Amino acid sequence: MKKAILLCTLLASLAANAxxxxxxxxxxGKNGIMRWAATSGVSNGGRDLKLLPxxxxxxxxxxxxxxxxxILSKFKANGTPDSSLQGQNFSMYDPFLGADDNLYCMExxxxxxxxxxxxxxxxxxxxxxxxxxxxxxxxxxxxxxxxRVMVDAGGNESAMKIKxxxxxxxxxxxxxxxxxxxxxxxxxxxxxxTLDNSxxxxxxxxxxxxxxxxxxxxxxxVLPGGNIIVCGTVSDGVLAQVGMAKLxxxxxxxxxxxxxxxxxxxxxxxxxxxxxxxxxxxxKLLICGTYKKANNDExxxxxxxxxxxxxxxxxxxxxxxxxxxxxxxxxxxxFADLMELKNGHFFVLANYTDIDNNKHILGIMFGExxxxxxxxxxxxxxxxxxxxxxxxxxxxxxxPQxxxxxxxxGNAKNAITxxxxxxxxxxxxxxxxxxxxxxxRTQQVTIYPNPATSYFNITTGTKVDGxxxxxxxxxxxxxxxxxxxxxxxxxxxxxxxxxxxxxxxDTYSVxxxxxxx
Length: 517
Prior knowledge:
This protein is mainly β. The protein is 3% helix and 48% strand. It is built from one helix and 35 strands. The protein has one helix at 2-17, and strands at residues 33-36, 43-51, 57-64, 68-75, 90-93, 101-108, 114-121, 126-133, 148-151, 156-164, 170-178, 181-189, 204-207, 214-222, 228-235, 240-247, 262-265, 272-279, 285-292, 298-305, 321-324, 332-340, 346-353, 359-366, 381-385, 390-400, 405-414, 420-428, 446-448, 455-459, 464-470, 476-480, 486-488, 496-504, 508-515. The chain has a four-stranded antiparallel β-sheet, with no helix packed on it. Strands 2-3-4-5 form a four-stranded antiparallel β-sheet, with no helix packed on it. A four-stranded antiparallel β-sheet has the order 6-7-8-9, with no helix packed on it. Strand 6 (101-108) and strand 7 (114-121) form a beta hairpin. The longest helix has 16 residues, at 2-17. The N and C termini lie far apart (47 Å).
């Protein structure tokens, strides 16, 4: 009887404190919004955001003073600055002194070290630059060439995405720019930063779309077995399209993918661009982006493709694609990022410009077949707008947290200084019907070893009913419906930060785990 009373009291307390999905977390920053700049009077551009196992998070980008340099900043879980980066909450990196450098991507390794990627401006052109940073913000001078690796593919190049493979090798998705032209290429490095000569002979695999003069890299996914799906935007100078290709483990473009080794798509024959891609729990590829409508305004698109480059025949009422317009007015809605929830629903982040040219962010919930989930927010939508002291300059990154909330990162423009600042929203998304990572925790669950290599153990005082492993995007990468004490980690799970959700008889727990094979 006492246990029943205690359980009812606990559930009542949880219900009283529950946050409505789609609302901002008032305990974060200022009423759910964090704005930050390294120094006043200069612009700070946020490009990427990563969660750390202790709940703190990193944000990386550029700071513009007399020249533009890379910057890495660290924050506590509540959005306040964390001063553990060499005594302060940010570190700056200038690959070529006095030149402009851009940062586009970041990856946190299993040992806590950080890879930063972008380009460095040289004497004649821009080259890919990758830094390896220690957890305290200092450069790891034992890696590469004094802590950095530069890749010159014979033109102006930039790193756009970093991913670590299960064997510890490092993939860098890049774009090479020329005179009115561009193309995608993928670099593979060994763990020590040297180019992997078993990958396309020299560690660099170009992804060329015949007949297309432009190819801009967006994202990539490593499939079980080591094949790589590359996604970007390609154009022949007239029509922009979503473009995809598939590489094998040696860097060769596979001819069996799509049509003639490539997949291309333009919504209604109009200019279409990819902005991000995830691999779903059903092993499909879901791409978010934009397309130009007949009136030249932008709408968001979601495109579902299988790993062979064939459009899905179930998603979007059998068309494999959906287009989204908030209203029929002359407005722009560009889908920027997305994540999959435990029940197969998809949460999509959009940058929205209204008819008066005011910028907002939209959070939109779709079902597993692309239908709008009207039980979320205001008929599937939540909208957040600027305040009197800042305008939204663009948001692009979703990062789920173990408590069922999400961080949304991007940039704001200070209304007083007219300079850009880092901008982060923290949104409540925990709901037993919509969230893949629940907020309930219990101290009775222990997961070890951590870091783990090929397995982990679970000890708990109550019966285990289910175990799930999530990656940083909220995607399920492992699921066990048994009560074994030892759980084997799937071979296709690469090194990095993951979350183990354990369902017991009376509650859930979520525990961060580092995979370091």
